[in-house]
Design goal:
This protein is mainly alpha-helical. The chain has a single domain, classed as Ammonium transporter AmtB like domains (Ammonium transporter fold). It contains 12 helices and 4 strands. A hairpin with a 2-residue loop joins strand 3 and strand 4.
């Protein structure tokens, strides 16, 4: 930051990109909730934000990485084809967090009794109103996350693009949330699942984040619908594999983030932000760039996450004991000992 006073625009870039970096780490926390030690997760968070994420963001957004740099003609390219499109981070941010979340959930293991439970109602969210409120907070924030990724608001063109991005950031989550809500009502146990509705909304947001500046509104709807299907499929798959991802972080951010990146290989519109998807330019090679980027980001994130988490687990720094899980970390570790005061505590 030594030269920031010479180029003062770097301050806003630092703050904006810092928020993206923090997002990648916070995604992981949801998957590992209720049985993870603070010291183990803190170590992982430091390494996620200083090594894992910074490399990926450099590859795709610095203008000097192998996924996006200027060739001798001054054209933006990747090392093997068209430059990598990811407008606001379906892959760079969300997929990195989602893959880390999957590794974390596997490394720390399931909550006590979760694998053996015949009815997971015991492990249901404690407050559906808070889930809904949190979803709306996130959705509201996404209008800074996605339209803010225009990175400027100085011209009419900037404003038009931000408006296009905002519309797409509205349509995709609407259709994804409704689809997941309908699917869960149609599948056993045939109940109206409000928390599933909320995660469907988030899945739609993640899915459209890569393409929000590169696709038309009807394409955003298709991307959102497929994103809802990807989320539901990934969520069911993890449960069948007995992977305890508390908030479906991998399904929402990892699987759907990968779809968001790949979707631009199909739908990226040359008339909107220089997208070159297969349905618009059949020989552009954009799909190959997007697909290979997903593979490399997944391998990089998973590989380093395992290298970090495995020793923490071996040393006993990652998982809380069964006794702490039974009593609750609030009671054993925190002061005051309850997140919500009871009448007896107040008196």
């Amino acid at each position: 930051m030594d030269e920031f006073w010479d180029t003062k625009s770097n301050f806003k870039v630092w703050f904006f990109q810092g928020a993206f970096c923090a997002t990648a780490a916070t995604i992981v926390s949801g998957a590992m909730a209720e049985r993870t030690q603070l010291k183990g997760f803190a170590i992982y968070t430091v390494l996620m934000t200083t090594i894992i994420y910074p490399f990926v963001v450099y590859w795709g957004w610095s203008g000097n990485g192998w996924l996006n740099y200027k060739n001798q003609k001054g054209e933006s390219v990747a090392s093997f084809g068209p430059w990598y499109r990811d407008f606001a981070g379906s892959g760079i941010v969300h997929m990195v967090g989602g893959i880390g979340a999957l590794c974390g959930a596997v490394a720390v293991g399931a909550r006590k009794g979760w694998k053996e439970a015949k009815d997971l109602e015991e492990y249901a969210p404690h407050s559906i109103p808070f889930c809904v409120f949190g979803t709306f907070c996130l959705w509201f924030g996404w209008y800074g996350f996605n339209p803010g990724s225009t990175l400027a608001m100085k011209t009419t063109g900037n404003a038009y693009q931000a408006g296009q991005v905002a519309v797409n950031t509205t349509l995709a989550p609407c259709v994804a949330g409704l689809l997941v809500f309908a699917l869960r009502a149609a599948l056993p146990p045939n109940k109206l699942d409000v928390s599933g509705f909320c995660n469907g909304i988030l899945a739609g947001l993640v899915a459209i984040t890569a393409g929000c500046g590169f696709v038309k509104s009807w394409e955003a709807i298709v991307i959102g619908l497929i994103g809802g299907l990807v989320y539901q499929g990934a969520s069911m798959t993890l449960k069948m594999l007995k992977v305890d991802d508390v908030v479906d972080a991998f399904a929402v951010h990892g699987a759907t983030g990968a779809w968001g990146v790949i979707s631009l290989g199909f739908f990226g519109d040359p008339a909107l932000g220089d997208g070159r998807g297969f349905f618009h330019e059949t020989k552009s090679g954009q799909f190959g760039t997007q697909f290979l980027a997903v593979i490399v980001i997944a391998i990089w994130t998973a590989g380093l996450s395992i290298v970090i988490l495995a020793p923490l687990s071996f040393m006993g720094w990652l998982r809380m004991s069964d006794e702490v899980q039974d009593a609750g970390a609030d009671v054993i570790k925190h002061s005051p000992p309850k997140a919500y005061g009871s009448a007896s505590m107040i008196s």
